[in-house]
Amino acid sequence: MSGGPGMRTSRILAVAAVAVLAGTVLTASPAYADTTQCTPSGCGGEADFVAYGEHLWVRDQLADGHSAVARYWLEGGTGPFSIWSSGGAGTAVDGNLDLAEGTWIFYQVCLGEASTKTIVSGTCSAGVTDYA
After folding, report:
1. What is the distance between the alpha carbons of residues 84 and 79, in angstroms, rounded to a whole number?
2. Pair 46, 61: CB distance under 8 Å
């Protein structure tokens, strides 16, 4: 029999260390907004793009009679597409997109009238480009 109790303890500690390291590496990081845009004049609408999973969240933040809408364009110039948060102040909608890894998305957030799908002039953010 090779190795004594000290050798066995060392092996157990080494296996435990590898298990802890593997658990740390394999645990997914929590999702976070990679970029955020707000409508001008009080942030009545907000949009957050989360690259992990390709989510574009749209939030209506003010009881101003308008809905929040994110308009976005995809790599290749397709768009604009829209995601509306029309449930009233304090509500959010998750636009769960299906984008290829590394492709870009350009988006802006605006205020609008969901019933007619009309953007209110002068309410859109400057826009930002992010990557899936």
Report:
1. 15
2. yes
Pairing between strand 104-113 and 55-60?
A: unpaired
Residue 16, H or E segment: helix 5-26
Q: What is the pLDDT along the chain (132 residues), one digit of tens a residue?
A: 455 555 444 443 333 333 333 333 333 333 455 999 999 989 999 999 999 999 999 999 999 999 999 999 999 999 999 999 999 999 999 999 999 999 999 999 999 999 999 999 999 999 999 999
Query: For the whole model, what pTM was predicted?
Result: 0.74
Residues in the chain: 132
**Two tokens at 129?**
């480009």
